Amino acid sequence: MGYTPLTEYGIIGNDDRMALVDLSGSIDWCCFPHAAGPSVFARLLDDERGGHFAVRPTDSYEVEQAYRDRTNVLETTFSTRSGTLEVTDFMPVWRDDDREHDGDQNHDDRDQRAIYRRVRCTDGTLTVELEFEPRFEYGQAPTTVSRTETGYVATGDSSASPDWIERQDDLVLEVCGEFEPNALEDRVVGTRTLVADDEVWFCLRYGVGGRDGEGEEEGEGKEPQRQKSASIASCRNALESTVDYWQSWTDSLIDDAVPLVDDTPWGEYVLRSGLVLKLLINEETGGIYAAATTSLPEKYGTDRNWDYRYNWIRDAKFTVQALHNLGRDEEARDYFEWFRDIVTESPGEMQPVYGVHGEADLTEHELEGLSGYRHSTPIRIGNAAATQNQHDIYGAIVQAIYETLVRDGDLDDDEWEAIEALVDHVCAVWAEPDHGIWEYRDEQRHYVHSKLLCWVALERGITLAEDHDVEAPLERWRSERRAVREAILEHGYSERVGSFVQHFDTDTALDASCLLIPLYGFLPPDDPRVTATLDTVLDELATDEGLVYRTKGSEAVPDVHGTFVFCTCWLVDALVLADRIDAAEDIFHTVLEHASPLGLLSERIEPETGELLGNFPQAFSHIGLVNSAIYLASARGEADELNNDPRRDDRR
User: Fold this and answer.
1) How far is it, in rounded angstroms, from Cα 274 to Cα 253?
2) What is the mean pLDDT of the chain?
3) Is the pTM value of this prediction over 0.85?
4) CA dist., res. 71 & res. 598, Å (int)
5) Using CB atoms within 10 A of its CB, is residue 638 exposed (0-12), middle (13-18) or buried (19+)?
6) pLDDT in tens, 548-566
7) How far apart are CA 26 and CA 113, in angstroms?
8) pLDDT for 139-163, tens place per residue?
9) Are 28 and 348 in contact (CB under 8 A)?
């Protein structure tokens, strides 16, 4: 079949799981039991062996795809010569009353490990085909499919998988309505002619072997819970509950984020970004997946393919800012609690990245047997950046705590103890080289961004100590803050280039992360070195449209692939602070024009073709979009309505 462009995928999900659905009605990416688990559908990474779950007309068609209003429920409409087919895809979210009682069926978290697909002929007559071809454990475990009394069970032979891959449970596919597919050895296939108002449901559930009374243990002394087979009525209830959940959540967001969504040309993009971020959040832990996928390349045919299904510490400041300004205080607090738990560790033992459930072991493996997206390998599972030395994480954490306290106000003894330990650690390590924000895998260097974030840790730590009147070694902290500042200004700015640079003592390596210098308040926006850096970024790192490459002339990665969405958003923010509002708005509109028709963004944009590159959808990109909307709202004079005005010095 070939590979689908990323712009033709929609995403569905709930809490800890996600799936990508393309314009042809094929689910090409889905992992169970959670988003960082092994795939059961991975056509995204191998169009022949990855596995997929497709429902579509047999005749040629025109197709449109859209989300149901204010939800993450995806609707794909196929128009053929003889009729119209609507496929509705979602992962269920139960309302509280449904979770407690739905007929005689209680709902627990296992019921959310599911995909519901409603297939409905809305006009005329047409024939529908089903292809259900799961491939367990990244396609490493051979699949067997069998017919049961209530549906079809797919099982993977884990003995064929490498030991490091998590073992998966069975998948159960139930068909509700008049459709009788055939179970072949490793797949389920079938066709059915539908007429107007005919409706068929496909309910796919993971790890529900207890459907015949042999379920998981519910606790000592408790009987395993029997789970009812799906019915059209229960499927409709799941859809109603899920739509109600998402619309209620979005309506609350709209009420709380008026300056970002009301009467702005980018309101719908902000709403979609909020809905994407909600999908990427694990509700139990508060952690956020950086993206839903692994190993989508920065450039086709290269080996720069990474697993982004984890939570990076450095995302903290930007994530807290975005969530608060979307009015998502509960999610922001949950995220705050997630990384507050992390900082209870000794700072020297902290990792730059963790699993969203708190996993520290993210050993990186290269997967054999799949061709990779558009034949780009290797496919990586895990991320070796977890073991890197990255000094910017300390400032990211302190800044996130600082921004949370600006809003919530209370600093308890445990929080201060953690902050004090972080700032003390920064005093000890800031003068050492590290791997930097872009996690280069060659030698360590004195990266300007890392030094900047060390300064942020010291600056915010001093401010918190003074504001909350707590004991701290302020004389030492002030001395180290002064030393970091002097080092950045002496070694991190090139007079010859007229810009802050990527690392100390270079005249060739430029880096878009220097745009953060005014955003963190290290220097004011009108400082000549800041304005010169801004002009250099526009001249050397940006396309004519304003899309920004991460670096230029770097020894670490000489070849740069695709413009980076988040860096482009930093440029928008820096331009706002410099009162170059028209230029900022023009570039922001360029970013929006490159989003997919559904409003989704990956990590990168290829400026020559407009293609989306890298893992998808990307939290950083959508966080950047929201935060740039915040800066522009502030510039439009709506700062009083923002939960966190970025142009106020005490909020940076």
Assistant:
1) 8
2) 92
3) yes
4) 12
5) middle
6) 999 999 998 878 889 999 9
7) 18
8) 999 999 999 988 999 999 999 999 9
9) no
Kindly tell me if the per-residue pLDDT of 225 is higher than 60.
no
Pairing between strand 39-41 and 52-57?
unpaired
Q: What angle do CA 534, 538, 544 make, to 5 degrees?
A: 160
Concatenated DSSP letters of 107-160: --GGGGSEEEEEEEEEEEEEEEEEEEE--HHHHTB-EEEEE-SSSEEEEE-GGG
The pLDDT value given to residue 649? 52
How do 171-176 and 152-156 pair as beta strands?
antiparallel
Contact 478, 470 (CB under 8 A): no
The full 3-state SS of 199-260, as one line of letters, equals EEEEEEEECCHHHHCCCCCCCCCCCCCCCCCCCHHHHHHHHHHHHHHHHHHHHHHHHHCHHH
φ, ψ dihedrals at 117, nearest 5°: -130, 115
User: Cα separation of 166 and 142, whole Å?
Assistant: 15
Instruction: Judge contact between 6 and 602, C-beta under 8 A.
Output: yes
Residues paired with residue 493 on neighbouring β-strands, in sequence order: 500
Q: Which two tokens stand for residue 197?
A: 């108002």
CB 256 within 8 A of CB 270: no
Percent of the chain past pLDDT 70, that is, above it, reads: 92
Please give the pLDDT value at position 101: 45
pLDDT tens-digit profile of 339-398?
Answer: 777 777 789 999 999 999 999 999 999 999 999 999 999 999 999 999 999 999 999 999
Residue pointed to by tokens 């950045």: 488
Tell me the mean pLDDT in the region 278-300: 95
Q: Which residues pair with 168 in a beta bridge?
A: none
Asked whether the beta carbons of 574 and 624 are under 8 A apart, the reply is no
The CB-based long-range contact list for 229-232 (8 Å cut-off, 24+ gap) reads 229/150, 229/151, 229/174, 230/174, 230/176, 230/201, 230/203, 231/176, 232/176, 232/177, 232/199, 232/201
